[in-house]
Amino acid sequence: MLLRLAQLSKNQREVAEAVRIVPLKKRVSMIAGADVARNGKYLFGSMAVLSFPELLLLDESHAEQREPIPYVPGFLSYRELPVLAKAFSRLKKKPDLILVDGQGIAHPRRLGLASHLGVVLGVPTIGCAKSHLYGDYEMPEDARGSYTFLKSKNNRIGLVLRTRNNVKPLFISPGHLIDLDGCLCILLSVTPRYRIPEPIRQAHRMAGSRARSA
């Protein structure tokens, strides 16, 4: 297992060279949320495509497969990317941007699930994680919209963003083909009622339902 992880670490560093943190280049009218649920040894991936800024459901797709590797922190993409890529291929409406339940470049090797998925699909992605994986930060104030920066060696790699008053913040980082300013603008627009971005919230509900009924 240690040899396998060393090989995956090397691959992560190679793929990370293709990640581009740049301003969004096109107007966003459709945003997808991506999430994966598990039942036993099987993974259930879902994507929910919503209109933007209205946040109305336009399309959804699903896929399932046996998990290729067990969960190991820092290597989530090798477990969940295949089933999400399969779900993406089944979408009739392709999104301009994907919000991923996972990390972007706020990762020890700058290749969280959102970054890896963005490179593979060639689509802008944002990592939206509920917990901290990598980087130094200070806790933001309690009001919605408050944020601090996630930093690595004094470089800004993400945001710790409060999407609801007095609720735990999210750990946001660019995945691919978007920058920090774009992440902040999008995230505050897709969290009108809940802590979790609406596209991810819907994908989470879909994936969980399919896993429970399997």
From TrEMBL:
Reactions this protein catalyses: Endonucleolytic cleavage at apurinic or apyrimidinic sites to products with a 5'-phosphate
Enzyme class: hydrolase
Subcellular location per the Swiss-Prot or TrEMBL entry: Cytoplasm
Pfam families tied to this protein: Endonuclease_5
EC number, as in UniProt: 3.1.21.7
A GO CC annotation given for this chain: cytoplasm
Highest classification ranks of the organism: Bacteria, Bacteria division WOR-3
Gene: nfi
Primary location recorded for the protein, binned into one broad class: cytoplasm
The protein's name: Endonuclease V
Any GO MF annotation of the entry: magnesium ion binding
Highest taxon listed in the record's lineage: Bacteria
